[in-house]
Amino acid sequence: MSDKIERLKNLVHLARETTSEGRRKLLREVTDLFLETPETLNKNEVAQFGDIMGQIAYDLEMSVRRHLAEQLAGVDAAPRGLVTKLANDEIEVARPVLQESGVLRGEDLLEVVKIRSQEHLLAVSVRENQRLAEIGRYGR
Q1: In Å, what is the CA distance from 54 to each residue of 50, 72, 74, 130, 135?
Q2: Average pLDDT rounded to a whole number, residues 114-121
Q3: Residue ranges per structural domain of the chain
Q4: 62-72 and 43-57 helices, crossing angle to 10°
């Protein structure tokens, strides 16, 4: 119990930080906390984590968002709102989630390819090719 209290105190302290490094640490801690057991969280908790991670990440530079996208791309319980936002970001950020995230739905992908770049379309097409290859490999 004491470890959890210390962790919460640390998060509160980091939340008061206004430096870029402090914000990066806060995002890292919140993301790590989410990634420990995302499947045990309910829909509301996942959405709240997504809101928090998104607010912090979008206050920082693109490399931070790219890293977040890489971390969330393979997480089936990732916050859909945040993953969708990352999918609509610059291609360097969007690529991992466009290619790998199972959270994105068909309508999310269609919206991305309608309004974003050809590179976004290419990332989605790689995703589709991977899925077709898996179906062929493992049967229907």
Answers
A1: 6, 12, 17, 28, 33
A2: 94
A3: 2-138
A4: 160
Centroid of chain to Cα 110: 19
As a whole number of Å, the end-to-end CA separation of the chain is 47
CA distance 103 to 137: 22
Q: Please spell the DSSP secondary structure of 34-77, one letter per residue.
A: HHHSGGGS-HHHHHHHHHHHHHHHTTS-HHHHHHHHHHHTT-TT
Whole-number pLDDT of residue 96? 97
Q: Look up the pTM and report it.
A: 0.84
Contact 103, 128 (CB under 8 A): no
**What confidence tier does 134 reach under pLDDT thresholds 50, 70, 90?**
very low
